[in-house]
Amino acid sequence: MNEARLHFKIADLLNIDSRNVTATVRLLDEGGTVPFISRYRKEMTGGLDEVQISQIRDELERLRQLEQRRESILKSIEGQGKLTEDLKEKILAAETLSKLEDLYLPYKPKRRTKATIAREKGLESLAVFILEQKNNNVFDEAEKFISEEKEVKSVMEALQGARDIIAEICSEDAIVRDTIREQFKRSAKIKSRVIKGKEEAGEKFEDYFEWEEPLMSCPSHRMLAMRRGEKEDILILDITIDEEEALANIEKRMITSRGDAAAQIKEAIQDGYKRLLAPSIEAEMRLLTKQQAEEKAIVVFADNLRELLLASPLGQKSILGIDPGFKSGCKVVALNRQGKLLEETVIYPHEPQRKKTEAEMVVLAFCQKHDIEAIAIGNGTASRETEQFIRGIEILPKEIPVIVVSEAGASVYSASEVAREEFPDYDLTVRGAISIGRRLADPLSELVKVDPKSIGVGQYQHDVDQAQLKNKLDEVVMSCVNGVGVEVNTASKQLLSYVAGIGPVLAQNIVEYRNQKGPFRSRKDLLEVPRMGEKVFEQAAGFLRIRNGNHPLDKSAVHPESYHIVEKMASDLNCSIDDLVNDKDLRKKIQLTNYVNETVGLLTLKDIVNELEKPGRDPRKAFEVFSFDENVHEVNDLREGMRLPGIVTNVTNFGAFVDVGVHQDGLVHISQLSDTFVDDPNKIVKVGQKVWVTVSEVDVKRKRIALTMKGEGLTSSSQKGSNQKSKVVAKEEKYDPNDMNSALAALKSKFKK
Question: Could you read off the pLDDT of 251-269 as tens digits, one per residue?
Fold first, then answer.
């Protein structure tokens, strides 16, 4: 199949114009990245989005691999001297890998089988005689093959050998295999049962000790759960179909007569089905359903990760980050508006030390000294107690929001090479508190430093193909980073590495150049960075921002290749680019059709004008302050019927997990997400979403919380304080930070004012 036919096939499969598919493939083959193509080559692709471009890329790769396999098979069979025109046509017409492999199976080199041994004994012609079914004197014919030399001692041995050959022929017949495969897809059941004596050890798999359901409708989470139980030697899994129906279908294909020949074939079919065909197709179905379950689980993980990465940023604020703890204390760090560590210490407001007054003085002193505008508290151990302690500091200004932040992956970051490189002189606890504070300011910039698999928003993430999972998650991170844009003069190398076309090595080069030469003054300066070629610059430039650059568009998403268009617009209106940005009426005067040419169309021009309205705008939602119920701190505090605010922490195929502030997420089963039927939880809730839930059941011993959202509003944005705006705490008085008494006196004086 030539490339043009591949493009037409993809276009038909995805319902996309073939010209747009061809253009997209060309851009991909030239090294174009998905974010770049979707954002800056809309005229060529017809405005395809990232999802469609990714689908084209993936389908192209699949079809090209299929073509490579097709060529390899043709070459192998031709090398054996067995490639007939009819077989060649069938191989060329095969549209799936399974059909291709079915056709190749009879010619595929094998290990020594029963059929191989029978052929070595010269019994293949007897098998052919029986299969032809033209003569029923099979016993007389078999007698001719008795041979001491070939170790065929009797008619029964000769017929057994012939049946072994027939069994293999039947099991390798492409039509037979396809028939049985379709029967498996149509009516197979998956059954699980517990291994005797493993009931106690496998308690978590109790739901599957005796379980049966149709194979192809088994949800991904159940499929992966049962497979994990099998892997841990707790469960036995079987995939079965109606054997009588299967044998009848094979006999219909292979038997054309009655008599002794038919009887021999029937016996061979039964043996071949049980020994060869059924196990082979069952293995295929296991692999197919595993892949399907993995794909769905990976999609769930990717969707959750996207929501987490694109969570609303508080923005550039001075933040007090607190990593809570009991015995070891709470690590406290002060960060400036750029996320730089200013000061760190430890406070002990809880048991066993209970140095509450001293802890209050430290917090107040930090707030005064560093103009703290928000307080971020990790949601781990002692989180609610620490939140209660902070909110209980009477003279702490109420305009300083106190926000609980997810610690997911923070411990992984703290111990990582990235953290050691950033903060070589500080221990894990300081790094963790810094990460908590920075996550509040900008979740995306901080979370890119953590392996996405460690963030904890997946479903059976360790049971899926790890390479496929990594590729998908990296793709999501890249999409989010490029969708938001990156300030090149402040971004970490981890963040820069996800910008289209850049990667880790070039990201390091950018940081080193920035450190040596100072901040970039224009996007063009990037071309001076080692290994930053024209092609990479083309891919990356539009996603990199320079807030105070030489050119007014350097802070925007307008690509440098389009600067001349904006300059022409300004010239035609006798104004500057800044005037276009600042004056809405001027922008209304722009006649887009005047700037259409062979390479730039209305799609790109509309993007440019939209960007001029608010250059470099952040597409993420505005930040909303959230707080848990003040009266609920642990599972024991929960009662059935309680209505509570919560945050969605994970979305799976079977429902959503919600944090209500008790150190144990509750489950809103898919059936409890809405008053109407829900087929996909992602259509109702997203990770990070604020919701109202009602407690429907609490199992304190097993720490299981069942929640419902039926009859509830989906968001808690109307909750008290949700629209609070954080304000700067002005520094009014000086004090000695080392003298806590004078600090507290100064703070009390200030806060009373």
Answer: 999 999 988 999 999 999 9
Phi/psi at 422 (5° precision): -70, -40
Residue 744 is predicted with a pLDDT of 54
Strand pairing report for 374-378 and 402-405? parallel
CA distances from 148 to 113, 145, 154, 160 (A): 21, 10, 10, 16
Structure tokens that stand for 104 in this block: 């190749």
- For the residues 346-358, what does the mean pLDDT come to? 95
Q: What is the DSSP string of 142-155?
A: HHTT-BTTTTB-SH
State the Cα–Cα distance between residues 283 and 287, nearest whole angstrom.
Answer: 6
Strands 655-659 and 486-487: unpaired
Outline which parts of the chain fall under CATH 1.10.10.650: 3-107
Nearest to 311 by CA among 408, 400, 390: 408
What CATH superfamily classification does 503-613 receive? Answer: Tex RuvX-like domain-like (1.10.150.310)
CB 63 within 8 A of CB 619: no
Q: Which CA distances in Å does 309 have to 312, 443, 482?
A: 9, 6, 12
Burial degree of 620 (CB within 10 A; 0-12, 13-18, 19+)? middle
CATH architecture of the domain 635-708 equals: Beta Barrel (2.40)
Per-residue pLDDT of 687-731, as tens digits, reads: 999 999 999 999 988 789 999 999 865 544 333 333 333 333 323
Do 231 and 198 form a contact (C-beta atoms < 8 A)?
no
Q: Where in the chain is the domain with CATH 2.40.50.140?
A: 635-708
Distance CA 82, CA 73 (A): 12
Q: What average pLDDT does the segment 639-661 reach?
A: 93
Per DSSP bridges, beta strands 189-194 and 235-240 are antiparallel
Angle, in degrees to the nearest 10, between helices 278-309 and 174-187: 50
Please list, in sequence order, all residues whose beta carbon lies within 8 angstroms of the beta carbon of residue 551, skipping any fewer than 6 positions away: 522, 523, 563
Instruction: Give the pLDDT of residue 224.
Output: 94
pLDDT at residue 717, as a whole number: 39
In the chain, CATH 1.10.150.310 sits at 503-613
507, 494 in Cβ contact below 8 A?
Answer: yes
What average pLDDT does the segment 75-97 reach? 94
Q: Which DSSP letter does residue 651 get?
A: E
- The whole-angstrom separation of Cα 351 and Cα 733 is 33
In contact, 699 and 664? CB cutoff 8 Å: no
User: How confident is residue 750, by pLDDT bands cut at 50, 70 and 90?
Assistant: low
Six-digit token pair at 287? Answer: 């692999």
Which amino acid appears at position 241 of this protein?
A: I
Peptide bond between residue 35 and the one before it cis (omega within 30 degrees of 0): no
Burial of 591 (0-12, 13-18, 19+ CB in 10 A): exposed
* The CATH number fitting domain 3-107, selected from 1.10.10.650, 1.10.10.10, 3.40.50.720, 3.40.50.2300: 1.10.10.650
C-alpha span between 480 and 476 (Å, rounded): 6
List b or e across 340-365, with b for residues whose CB sees 16 or more CB atoms inside 10 angstroms.
ebeebbbbbbbeeeeeeeebbbbbbb
